[in-house]
Amino acid sequence: MTSAALLAPAVYAAGPDDGGCRHEMRGDHKGYHGEMHKMFRGLDLTDAQRTQMKELMQSHREAMQAKRPSDEVRAAHKQQMLDMITSDSFNEADLKAMTAQRSEQRAQAAVERMKMQREIYQMLTPEQQAKFKENFAKRGGRKGDRP
């Protein structure tokens, strides 16, 4: 029972949908939006399309930042994890509820990213859309292409 309690933070931190990509969201990495730029490379975008895409991605970035939990919420969550680890008993239901909530948040973020990608795709000309599909098919099997 003690080993399960010690693994709780690792289970939560990794998350079921994480795929080990947390580093892309920190530091000098461009994160998800850096990957977005790669998706549209070689499409000969017009200046107007580039401007529209930048505005859409900035809007998406701001919306996602607004949905991030506050420092107080994160501190409370950290305390909750500590309480689970140091408790005399282990409550699996509480841990499952916490991880389910985190999974739902990640799923919603994935939906928002897909909506943004679709909006950007709709900005492309039919020729650019065909090239995008071709490039996307070629990308298969590379790092970052996780289910």
TrEMBL record:
First and last residue of the signal peptide: none
InterPro entries: Cpx_auxiliary_protein, LTXXQ
Gene Ontology MF annotations: unfolded protein binding
UniProt entry tagged with the keyword Signal: yes
Subcellular compartments: Periplasm
Domain of life: Bacteria
Principal place of residence: periplasm
UniProt keyword Ligase present: no
Gene3D superfamilies referenced in this protein's UniProt entry, alphabetically: 1.20.120.1490
Gene Ontology annotations for the cellular component aspect, listed alphabetically: outer membrane-bounded periplasmic space
Entry keyword set: Periplasm, Signal
Family of the protein in this entry: Belongs to the CpxP/Spy family.
Name of the protein described by the UniProt record: Spheroplast protein y
Lineage of source species: Bacteria, Pseudomonadati, Pseudomonadota, Gammaproteobacteria, Alteromonadales
